[in-house]
UniProtKB/TrEMBL annotation:
The chain crosses the membrane at residues 60-81, 93-113, 119-138, 182-203, 215-236. The keyword Lipid metabolism does not apply. Pfam families: BPD_transp_1 (PF00528). It is found in: Cell membrane. Belongs to the binding-protein-dependent transport system permease family. Keywords: Cell membrane, Membrane, Transmembrane, Transmembrane helix, Transport. Residues 53-233 form the ABC transmembrane type-1 domain. This is NitT/TauT family transport system permease protein. It is a multi-pass membrane protein. It comes from the Bacteria. Gene3D superfamilies: MetI-like. The keyword Transport applies.
Length: 265
């Protein structure tokens, strides 16, 4: 039995247990409603969930642009320059160990309870791991690549775009995966704490009235959002792997051709 088939069987088994355990009374439906009742609740109020999902998606996309884009850029700069790396990295590592959720009330005071505070909180929540992973990946780059770029007169921006970030793609994508997942968590958690819109708000609202099917319908939407993000990162990883393999093959062919053109001694 292949690993893929085994994964499918596990998923099917979990779905069956989700439906059967509440139906048989082994688990109270207040704690875990059946899958069918959860799907019916989501379908009945599909318009409400669709509007909430649109709000959450907007906040997630904007937060990822700030967190992942800024984290990759600043991580590449800090990781490629020794002095900023020594000064900034210890502080960022220490800040990453702090539970940042305690800062969300501060953002609500500064920015209100609208999308702005959620975007700011989720951006910082996902920025730190993305920056740390990118900076760590930059330090693993072959110094000969950077030396060759400098000797050819490449500026810092050219080295970042053409040498540093492409060479650190695997580590950058790993940081992007962690940072993006934390952005989703940050948006949903902030919506659950203080909000009037979004999937997190719906989960929190239905939780207060003990409407478990609607709560788990919101949980399913968050789960599908995380799965879709992970699938997108996997697609980017496959494309990056093909690009890197092609680049290495092309470089190897160039080296062989150069060797063949050299006169024999």
């Amino acid at each position: 039995m292949s690993a893929k088939t085994l994964r499918y069987l596990i998923v099917i088994g979990l779905i069956a247990l989700w439906e059967l355990l509440p139906r048989t009374g082994l688990i109270p439906e207040l704690f875990l409603p059946s899958l069918s009742s959860t799907l019916i609740a989501g379908w009945t109020d599909a318009a409400e969930y669709g509007h909430a999902l649109a709000v959450t998606l907007y906040e997630v996309v904007v937060s990822m642009a700030f967190a992942c884009g800024g984290g990759i850029l600043l991580g590449a700069i800090v990781g490629s320059l020794p002095r900023p790396r020594v000064l900034i990295m210890p502080m960022v590592s220490s800040l990453y160990a702090v539970p940042l959720v305690i800062l969300y009330p501060v953002f609500t005071v500064w920015l209100g309870i609208g999308s702005e505070s959620k975007i700011a909180f989720a951006s910082i929540y996902g920025f730190l791991p993305t920056m740390l992973a990118t900076a760590a990946g930059i330090q693993t780059i072959d110094p000969q690549l950077l030396l060759a770029a400098r000797s050819m007169g490449a500026t810092l921006s050219q080295r970042l775009i053409r040498v540093i970030i492409p060479a650190a793609i695997p580590t950058v994508l790993s940081g992007l995966r962690v940072g993006g997942a934390l952005v989703i968590v940050g948006v949903v958690v902030s919506e659950m704490l203080i909000s009037s819109a979004g999937i997190g708000y719906l989960i929190s609202r239905y939780r207060t009235i003990l409407d478990s099917p609607h709560v788990f319908a919101g949980v399913l939407l968050v789960l599908f959002l995380a799965i879709a993000f992970n699938a997108a990162i996997r697609w980017i990883e496959r494309k990056a792997a093909i690009w890197q393999t092609g680049t290495r093959a092309g470089q190897a062919n160039d080296d062989i051709a150069s060797s063949a053109m050299q006169p024999a001694t």
